[in-house]
């Protein structure tokens, strides 16, 4: 399967998990295409001041890969800065959040996979 850029679905999401602003999700694969493996495979375009509020995962894990820029995160309550090329993995039963505290747009690849 090949998907052209113009075929990708962009879904703006507001105040995700109690976070701030609107974050567009460019879905690289739909939940149906991922099947039983997971539910999200998307590029998140995070503008300054936007965030995803702290939340946990149960029965699934989430991976964030920072493609460019810097983003503030919490990882089970510990605060960190992630930079281009860094990866954050949040397994089932753990909590995380991300927030763009800078003045430039940050692109993050998000993948939610189910525990097997």
Entry keywords:
116 residues; mainly beta; 6-stranded antiparallel β-sheet; 4-stranded antiparallel β-sheet; globular
Helix content: under 10%
**Whole-number radius of gyration?**
14 Å
Helix-strand sequence? EEHEEEEEEEE
**CA-based shape:** globular
Do you know the CATH topology?
Jelly Rolls
Tally of structural domains: 1
The second-level CATH architecture is Sandwich
Q: How many DSSP E strands?
A: 10
CATH C-level class is Mainly Beta
Distance between the termini: 25 Å
Mean pLDDT: 96
| CATH H-level superfamily | Jelly Rolls
Task: Output the strand order for the largest sheet.
Answer: 1-2-3-10-5-8
Runs with pLDDT <50, length 5+?
none
Tell me the number of helical segments per DSSP (H or I, 4 or more residues long): 1
Strand count, sense and closure of the main sheet? 6 strands, antiparallel
Strand percentage lies at over 45%
| Structural class by SSE content | mainly beta
What topology emerges from the helices and strands here?
Layout lengths: L8 E6 L7 E8 L1 H4 L3 E9 L4 E6 L3 E9 L1 E6 L2 E6 L3 E4 L4 E5 L6 E9 L2
Antiparallel strand pairs: 1-2, 2-3, 3-10, 4-9, 5-8, 5-10, 6-7, 6-9
């Amino acid at each position: 399967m090949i998907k052209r850029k113009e075929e990708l679905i962009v879904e703006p999401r507001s105040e995700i998990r109690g976070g701030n602003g609107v974050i567009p999700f460019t879905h690289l694969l739909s939940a149906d295409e991922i099947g039983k493996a997971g539910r999200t495979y998307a590029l998140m375009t995070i503008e300054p001041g936007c965030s995803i509020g702290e939340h946990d995962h149960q029965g699934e894990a989430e991976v964030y890969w920072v493609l460019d820029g810097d983003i503030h995160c919490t990882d089970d309550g510990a605060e960190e800065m992630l930079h281009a090329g860094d990866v954050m993995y949040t397994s089932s039963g753990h909590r995380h959040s991300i927030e763009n505290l800078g003045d430039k747009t940050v692109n993050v690849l998000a993948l939610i996979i189910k525990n097997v």
